[in-house]
Design brief:
Elements (H helix, E strand, L loop, with lengths): L8 H4 L10 H9 L5 E2 L36 H15 L8 E4 L1 H13 L5 E6 L3 H9 L3 E6 L7 H9 L6 E7 L11 H14 L2 E5 L22 E6 L12 E4 L2 H14 L5 H13 L1 H22 L9 E5 L8 H13 L1 E2 L1 E2 L10 E5 L5 H15 L2
Parallel strand pairs: 1-10, 3-4, 3-5, 5-6, 6-7
Antiparallel strand pairs: 2-8, 7-8, 9-12, 11-12
Helix pairs in contact: 3-9, 4-5, 4-8, 6-7, 10-12
């Protein structure tokens, strides 16, 4: 057993901050007053819509807004989210099937903590959102990566790739659409096939749909429509409504499973931030015009960056995932990233954070700065790599 100052082996094996290897370089450049182009972080330069900002909420209108809410969530937000899930996502949902969470991160953690025993395996379609691997490890389960978004070209090959990594210890599969970092949208027939395989193998499904409203090509479908009895679906206000700092999302699943996940959420974050829930409620009620506008802006930024770099335009999300293999020397991807930061102020996310086998990749977020600044950064990157 580990004793002070040692940590648990599973935690010791986890990576730290995604950008920890570049932290010193970032600090040096910032202290020297050098410009940084923050293409590394998956956020937006925009503030939320007028009416959904913190200054738009007051204690006079919302007495108790600085207190805890019910662990399930504010009743008004729960009801509005249920209506949205039924109408937009076509997922059957009753009151006992929805839990408001501390972002989608808190929701996915509550879901995994509710069913995963130590040493059990969770398949993760790769490349993936970096934090999901650590969340699985946090609950003493084992992440098993399945090369998928940039490798599979047919649904048959995709299912075989999943099937080949299933063992007697596999309990779940994590799916994200649109994908962070690739921007790929999984077609409905692929999702149906994945759901069928999960049912045959008796697996839980974890569906990460935080970019559901940022789709430019293709069609978004929720995998829970094909297997509602075994699917946890995580939603968030962070990306589409510029509310990442509010830490509010919601988790949908079978009633008995959500009741168990609520045990985890109660004993970790207890309840989502009350003010964040109030802002989320306004997003569901009044955010349609904002959403249409930012979707157009985000698509234009992503398409322009892809055009400049000679890449296919993203199908959804706010990212491009680029292979820099022909640019690397013996220092590898971190040497390349250090040069980009030192010489041009370009800060991008390193590929290894998104899965094994992506040691030559970088992720670029096209919404983390105003469009003119993003284009300036992409032009610098284009010049550097000769595209």
């Amino acid at each position: 057993m580990p004793r002070p100052p040692q940590s648990a082996p599973s935690v010791a094996a986890m990576s730290g901050a995604v950008f920890s290897r570049l932290a010193g370089k970032i600090r040096e450049r910032t202290e020297a007053g050098g410009e940084i182009f923050p293409l590394h972080v998956g956020d937006t330069y925009l503030e939320p819509f007028v009416g959904g900002r913190m200054q738009d909420l007051s204690v006079d209108d919302h007495p108790g807004m600085h207190r805890y809410s019910s662990p399930q969530g504010l009743p008004s937000l729960v009801d509005a989210a249920i209506e949205k899930v039924r109408e937009t996502n076509r997922i059957p949902c009753e009151r006992g099937q929805l839990l408001v969470t501390a972002g989608a991160t808190g929701g996915l953690g509550a879901a995994i903590g509710s069913f995963a025993a130590p040493g059990e395996e969770i398949l993760i379609l790769a490349p993936f959102w970096p934090l999901i691997r650590g969340i699985v490890q946090t609950f003493r389960a084992t992440p098993v990566e399945v090369p998928f978004y940039d490798r599979m070209t047919t649904v048959e090959a995709a299912i075989e790739a999943i099937r080949s990594r299933i063992t007697e210890r596999t309990v779940a599969i994590y799916v994200s659409t649109p994908s962070n970092p690739t921007g790929r949208v999984i077609p409905p027939d692929w999702l149906a096939a994945i759901a069928d395989e999960a049912r045959r193998q008796d697996l839980w499904i974890l569906s990460d749909e935080i970019y559901e409203q940022l789709i430019y090509r293709g069609e978004h479908a929720s995998i829970a429509t094909f297997a509602p009895e075994r699917t946890f679906t995580a939603f968030s206000f962070s990306k589409a409504f510029g509310m990442a700092g509010n830490r509010t999302g919601y988790l949908v699943g079978p009633a008995t499973a959500i009741a168990t996940a609520r045990k985890i959420s109660t004993h970790t974050f207890y309840s989502a931030p009350t003010s964040g829930q109030l802002a989320g409620l306004r997003a569901l009620r009044d955010g349609d015009a904002w959403l249409a506008d930012v979707r157009s802006r985000y698509q234009a930024a992503g398409d322009r960056a892809a055009e400049l770099l000679g890449e296919d335009p993203p199908q959804g999300s706010t990212f491009l995932f680029l292979d820099m293999a022909d640019q690397l020397d013996e220092r590898g991807i971190f040497g390349f990233l250090e040069d980009c930061l030192d010489e041009d102020g370009l800060l991008m996310a390193p590929g290894p954070s998104f899965g094994a086998g992506y040691e030559t990749h970088v992720r670029v977020c096209t919404t983390s700065a105003p469009p003119a600044k993003v284009e300036q950064a992409v032009q610098l990157l284009r010049k550097r790599i000769g595209r």
